[in-house]
Amino acid sequence: MNCNSLLVGVTIIVYFCNFFVSSVDPTYKVKESNTPPSYALSYVYVRHLAKIEETLYKLLHNYELVLKARLNIVSNYVKDYEDSSIRGTKDIENKDVHSLEKATVIASHPLMSYRLIKRFSSEIEALGKDLSLDVETHLKEQVVEMMDGRPWPTKSDHESAMDALLRLQYVYNLDLKDLTSGKIGDIQTDVGLTAKQSFHIAKFGSYANFHTLALEWLGVTSWKVVNTTEATNDIGLNTIALAYRHSVEKHNTEIAKTNNIGNLYTFVSKITGNQLPPKQRDVILKLQAENPLDEEDLYELPEHEQAQIAHYDYISLCNGINTKAETDRSDLYCFYETKKNPYWYINPLKTEVLNIEPRLIQIYEFIGDKWINYLIEMATPISRAPPTPEGPATPRTAAYAWLNDSEIPQTPLSRRIEFITGLNVRGEEASTALQIASYIFGGHVANHVDSLGDDSDERGDRATTFLIYLNNVVAGGYTAFPILGTFVKPVKGSAILWYDSLKNGDIDHRMLHGACPPIFGHKWIATKWTHMNENMFTRPCTLDPDL
């Protein structure tokens, strides 16, 4: 086909930012990170924080009552002093008199004297007793004990959480009026966002140059100020208008600087009036849907254009839009696997073929709840941030743990995977440790291939990926394969299997894939990568460049 119609005469240069996009050839080396993940990356940490806050709320609510009682004491004191000593000496208040003369007037008045004594014997006495309790020190000690050595969420955690919300907005094109009113995707809840909270997200989006997203947040902030009566509505329309003008200027400057080439977060043209132009995202998605590329045409394009197309196919797949040709979908089928190993004679594998060549299958009921609960228990708390890259890396937002076979003796997964693949999986030379990944809202991994593409690993390149879904995801969280044009919905206990490399040892770029962010709920997966060197006889190499 003619690619000019798809690219509408514009050369696409993808911004390789840490938000979504990765190269078509994202080969990289990583160092395992011992850094704890951000609260915004870890379902385990957020759940722990929510549990802690139950206790913290009770402590602070009691503290609020203490402060109200304390304030009431102080207010009663101030009111009585003003109503007696100040009122009774108002005739000499503005005269140049010594304070002893005012004190003499008060002491001479029986009722002022009585009220003076009463104030010290009641309000001042009560305040002294209250302050001697040292409530603040006790509260601080309780809070520190609750955190158990882990710091409070910081500004960085807050920014990561806003980044995650912006990612959901971008990938799923969420309606912000619905979102800030508590409707998350198709799920209606009772918790939304205030105008002030929406404004903070808009400012962060503008600072990060997510122009389209920021302007949409400013629009919903204005809508909430005008149409809702929130107690926290302390954002004025003038403040919003000023921020809006600033964001428009930033957007238009970006358009002029780059000639609108490759920026994921711009409109198709400069903003000149009150009406926002169409978003680049929406226009390109529509064009790609109307002008699909087959695999041969795709590989004739420069790599940056391949990445552009794969990125927007990823978005379509994350939204449940299958981009595989109807004729190819009609060839897919399900079957019971019984021949791979005698083990499956009495316990057939429920298998669905998701793609024929290259082969991608989903195996249902691979493991049960007992094994799943055990794996999650052994991986909790997940305490590592994403790996630290050495060179170009795949942007990812999740928390990870690694479990060797010896650490999970109750779940002989490697042996069971061997029964399916016929490959050597057991042993450190044959495969990696089992990686457990936890994704919270907005958690994702950008398009990448699992093949390392080099000889950096003494065990050889990765031969297969075996990915197990440990839970059902309420909404979102698909695994997208842009070049295959298909997505996989997480089904608890199921697993998907594919080969990372061709038999001749080359990377199989067709297995490009990415993890779509969960919209609601969370996502747990376990991944086992098998390596080539220990499988040179179980999966022999070939010199055929097409295999």
Characterization of this structure:
The chain has 547 residues and is α+β, with helices and mostly antiparallel strands. It contains 17 helices and 18 strands. It has an eight-stranded antiparallel β-sheet with strand order 4-5-6-15-11-18-9-8, covered by helices on one side. Strands 10-16-13-14 form a four-stranded antiparallel β-sheet, with helices on one face. It is elongated, with a radius of gyration of 31 Å. The two termini are 26 Å apart.
Keywords:
547 residues; alpha+beta; eight-stranded antiparallel beta sheet; four-stranded antiparallel beta sheet; 14% strand; disordered N terminus
Arithmetic mean pLDDT = 85
Bulk shape: elongated
Number of helices: 17
How are the strands of the biggest sheet laid out side by side? 4-5-6-15-11-18-9-8
Percent of residues in beta strands? 5-15%
- The gyration radius over C-alpha positions equals 31 Å
